[in-house]
Amino acid sequence: MRHLLTIILCCLFVAANANKPATPLLWESHPSYTTVLPEFAGENVIGLLLDERLEYYHNDEGNFLGQRSIHKKFRINNEQSINDFNKISVSMADVLETVDIKARVIKPDGKIVEFDKNNIKEIKDEESGDAYKIFAIDGIEVGDDVEFYVVTNVTADNFGRFFLQYSYPVQKVNFELITPETILYDFKGYNGCNEVSHTVMDDKRNVYSFSEENIKGIKDEKFSYDTPRRQRLEYRLDYNLNKSRAQVLSWDEAAQRLYDIMYLDPDPKVMKKWFDDIKLTATDNIGKVKQIEDYLKSNVYIQEFHSSEFDDISFVYDKKMTSGRGMTGLMVKLFAQLGIDHEIVITSPRDKVKFDPDFQSWNYLDKFLIYIPETDQYIDPAAQGFRLGCFNGMLADEYGLAVERVNIGSFQSAIGKIKHIDAPGPEANYNNMYIQVDVDPDEALAKVDTYVGFKGLSGGFVSQFYKVIDEDQKKNMLKNMMVISVPENDILSVEKGEAQANQDKIADAEMIVHSKVASTSFVEQAGNKLLLHLGNTIGPQAEMYFEEDRDQQAENEFNRTYYREIVFNVPDGYRIKNPEAAIMSVVEKDGDKPVFVFNSSYSYEGQQYKVVIDEYYSEITVPEERFEGFKNVVNAAADFNKVVLVLEPM
């Protein structure tokens, strides 16, 4: 939302008194080697101090500026951590000037190795457009303390986010924000962090301060995301008493700003060019939506970063390049001109930070969707390979801000409303398989013929990329999409396939991969018997065998289905001794409704043995009381990999 906020910064802060910038943090001339708490002594890295201070002030011209001071100190306890911390990266986003940079290494005996300022380099990330200062710190050894300190003059932020928890423990955290008398901020802490205190200085300036000690490192957990679980502070400009006594920067104001950017005054001549190129043939609204989306995503490259020219539909027409936000604006202008009902929704990916509808921070306004009420589906404008109904799973089962257009007489405007973005059901995303297995007893060789159908986020979207890549890339893609795992030399053929008769579970697949393999890896000889590792024909499965001590509930990336139908033609002269080995049933319910399921059953008639597996996950969030059942369903799929049929001579 940085570009959306540029105008707001200019409008909000006027006619104010000048204040001096922040006093830099204390940099000790004779620092001591820090004592580490016993409970943290065995960690690879310990954060000894994380200290960030911001002071916002008005300069003599009335511009609202700030000075940011960051002071960090770490204990480095292994070689890998030396590699991780011998180069420090500092973002230059919103930085007007670098005031000072200091860094040093403190040895256990108190010796100091000072930082050489000639080691500073500035680089730019070409994908995001963000600039960074990178500086190398020499002389680090295991057991050393690494300390650095950066002071920059910055543009003041209406919204901010401060993380105080990391993968390593932290012994001391401080945060402070100082603002002029008339500028008031609001704060909210997440995941158990302390409250922010608000005091007033003698000169009437506001001081918002926070401190916390001995924060444990956050650990990785399967089916969970680290960043939203970290302790953090969110803060926002709440009142600007120079302007009025009303709360500022509400959801409604954000919606109005977005409306102005997305809808106002499209050039009719440029709009006509777009429609001329698209050449609409569909007669119904949903058909038009699909045709417009497909044309734009097939002809306009979508960058990961945003630049102001991407909001200009003339620029996008000429350059055939835009951003997710720019694509959103282009699509909704076209939909609006055609009278197609739609709604912009903007949210935050839940693997980063979850959208909080009760705290009006525009930092949550990060990713765009377009809701089409007629079909109750979303478009993901930023995703080149996704089409109507398929969108980033991290934006589902999440709240967002909907820009609701309203008509007041002949005037149109917008209001903001909080909307829950429902996740598509498991049928929208599938990885379904039809497998035929034949065994040559003399060679102990299994021939496996597999059709895998992909839909939605389970892999169907790759069909859009398959259309435009060269033949070598297509071959590599098809091999990578083979679910079955065998040595390269065992692959007989792999091709883009089509659903066959009686393969109704992949009839609407967006991508089908047909492979044939011949491998001895599935068959073992045990005396006069054969052991067929039937479970391995479905490919390796995720497992959660050792997930006992978790801190948080689990989350699925998206709802999904796995259907597998395995037909094994038993070789003449043999029979299956243990046909019941494939029977498995693990179900987790919400009340009477099954929500996580793994069911495997079989039939055995003549020389044909058939297994049908139905596995699905129909809820994104797994609350603590259902975690054990969810884990058992995930592990059931992994347990099926262990299914071995015993073939004995008749």
What does the model show?
- Keywords: Signal.
- The chain has 3 domains: about 240 residues, Immunoglobulin-like (Sandwich); about 170 residues, C8orf32 fold, CATH 3.10.620; about 220 residues, Jelly Rolls, CATH 2.60.120.1130.
- The protein has 11 helices and 35 strands.
- The strands form 8 sheets. An 8-stranded mixed β-sheet has the order 5-4-8-2-1-10-13-12. Strands 24-25-23-22-29-33-32-31 form an 8-stranded mixed β-sheet, covered by helices on one side.
Topology:
Layout: H1 2-12, E1 45-58, E2 64-76, H2 79-85, E3 87-91, E4 95-106, E5 112-114, E6 120-124, E7 131-136, E8 145-155, E9 159-163, E10 170-179, E11 183-190, E12 197-200, E13 206-215, H3 226-229, E14 232-240, H4 251-263, H5 268-278, H6 285-299, E15 301-303, H7 313-319, E16 321-323, H8 324-338, E17 343-347, E18 367-372, E19 377-379, E20 398-408, E21 411-421, E22 430-440, E23 445-455, H9 463-466, H10 471-480, E24 491-496, E25 511-519, E26 523-526, E27 529-532, E28 554-555, E29 560-569, E30 574-576, E31 584-590, E32 593-605, E33 608-617, E34 621-622, H11 624-640, E35 645-649
Parallel strand pairs: 1-10, 15-16, 22-29
Antiparallel strand pairs: 1-2, 2-8, 3-7, 4-5, 4-8, 6-7, 9-14, 10-13, 11-14, 12-13, 17-18, 17-20, 18-19, 20-21, 22-23, 23-25, 24-25, 26-27, 27-35, 28-34, 29-33, 30-35, 31-32, 32-33
Helix pairs in contact: 6-8
